[in-house]
User: Fold Glycosyltransferase 2-like domain-containing protein from Marivirga lumbricoides.
Amino acid sequence: MNFINPTVSVIIPFYNKKDYIIDTIKSVLSQTLKEFELIIVDDGSKEDLPIGKINAFDDIRIKIFQTENRGVSHARNFGANEAKGKYLLFLDADDKISDNFLLDGILSFGMNKDISVISPKVKLFGKKRGHLHLSAYSMNILLARNIFIMSCLIKKDQFHQSGGFDSSFLKGFEDWDFWISYMTYGGIVKYNRDIEFHYRISPESRNHSLNKTDFELFRSKIMKKHYPLYSKYSFSFFESFEYKLIEQSAEYKLGSFLMKAIRRKRF
Assistant:
């Protein structure tokens, strides 16, 4: 096993998730691919990171860093800057992945050099069970709303090329902004339904509706930041019949539920 030059860097920002992070770590250490590193970034958590339990794994692939509390975007960027792997996987401290996630995901990259994202099947667990179904990628749809979970496999070089996460975005909108920036640099999205991301819906996620004021505020900010893209793909898309159908669709409402769950998990 190559621990000096791992294939994948798994990055877990930690903030007040001490009851779940051990299960998350176990899901990573159970991978069939062994050439990875696990970077845990303690983002100034009010809850202590369970160091004793983590050290009990006695695994040199685990690296722990502590920073002052500056939010999930800073923690992810910090982890990515420390990463030695060619590929990155961001994983929240209460979620899990299937045992074959890293190996089969990396093999998918080998199918086409232009692939820049490996998107897994999304399974909900915890308070709500089922599967999350998101739209196939197109820049038009991505400019209208986020259609990616954050726990996709991505290329580290393209991550840095895109500038990483913008910490001025909050409440889950940093993910949407990131994906627009990342996909600006192109590439194919490969959907691999043989690998699973397990997304925990926690008890505190009571309100499944996205706050309209927040959505409009941050969408406006995103549109201003990425104005050349919105100009290229035309603002008229938001007035189109297609967009109106999207807004009313069950899938759109499920995406709103996902955004709200992200907000509840982090703040």
